[in-house]
Structures are given as C-alpha cells and as structure tokens.
Amino acid sequence: MNEEELKALNVDKSVDARGTACPGPLLAAKKAIAEISSGQIMEVLSADEGTRKDIPKWAAKKGHEYLGTAEDSGYFKIYMKKG
Amino acid sequence: MAKMTMGLGTSSIDKLISAGVILSGAAADDMEVDVFVLVNAGHAFLKNKAADISNMSEDIQTPEEFKASLEKLNTPSWIEFFEMAKELTEVKINICSLAGKIAGGEKMEDFIDLVDDICGIGEYIESVQEADVNLFI
Questions:
Q1: B3-136 maps to CATH 3.40.1260.10
Q2: ipTM of the complex
C-alpha cells in the first residue's frame, strides 16, 4: 500500500509508542494486537529506528499482514491487519 | 513453542538490562525461556538488593550516567523488563543454589517474587539440551 492508501485506512487500534526506545514499541504492539480481532487494522506510532524493521518482521512471523509504513514528521506509522 | 535458555552470571546493571531486552524480544516472539541465575548473579535477585543494583560491568559510563541514559530513553528498570517478559510469555527464573548461597540467600523467601525456583546445575544442563538456543550473559 502507498502512503495515501495507508493514511486512508480505518484503524481499529492505534498504539502510540513514540515515548519508548527498543524494545518498547515491539512489546506495546504485542500487547495491543491481543485486544483486536482477526481482520482488524492496527497502527503503531514509533520514532525508534530499530522498530521500523522489527515490527514488520514480527507481524509477518506471527501471521499478521504487514500493510506498510507511512512517514510523519519525526516519527512513522506501521500498519498491519491482524491474521 | 521455540525455547531459549539463558545463563545469567552477573549482577551488573548493564548486563541485567541486556538480559531484560533479550527477554522482551523472546517474549514478543512467544518463546519459552528458562533463565538460570549463576554464581555472581544471585545478588541481584535478593529482596534486599534487587532494586538498588547499580554496579557496571565496565567503566564506559558511571552508574549515574548509565541511569540517566536509561531514564532519558524511558527504559524500564531491569526488574520491570523481567516482569513484562513474564507477563507475555513463559519465563521461568531459576536460582542456582550456589549463586543463592554466594549472595547469602538459601530459601525462596530470600528472593524477589520474580524467582520461580531454586535448582542445581543439572537442571540447567537438562534444559539447555532441550532448548533451540542458549545464551550466557
């Protein structure tokens, strides 16, 4: 998905992990995805560069669909659909 | 469920945080983890010492500088890292009886609540043989 498509998604769960360094965002994502149902969309906000690679890999490994990453000023949003 | 064993042989705060970060990653990946507290690591798990651990394994930073770096990054304490990992996956903390005795703890009540069991080295070796990966810190 391109950035416009990502930003137009109806997000079911938003996790703001901008205040934490690795592994904070990954743990926040792990906790939050348990709170949504299969097929729902989650976004994770992070400014941590390690997270940029970690979360898409983690999502794919755990059977979720990584939809893409959108840039914002000073942080990025990672989108996924729960598997 | 993939399994990791971790031999933890130090009470240095930087190594405890390292162990906590690795445990977090393992927890995110739903791994089962057996931690074995060996030799000098016993001190960190004592009720009267755990929260005050500040010694560093090397002098690249002073304990105060290290603490300030962690606070600036909103990093949890080593105990919080271990607690979070235990909440998210199957983590068992075993105190090797020698490590306990070196630190002055012999019974479960001498140790913080994170600790699940006191064991001998045989149990560590048995667990290592069943594990997909073993780390020594």
A1: yes
A2: 0.84
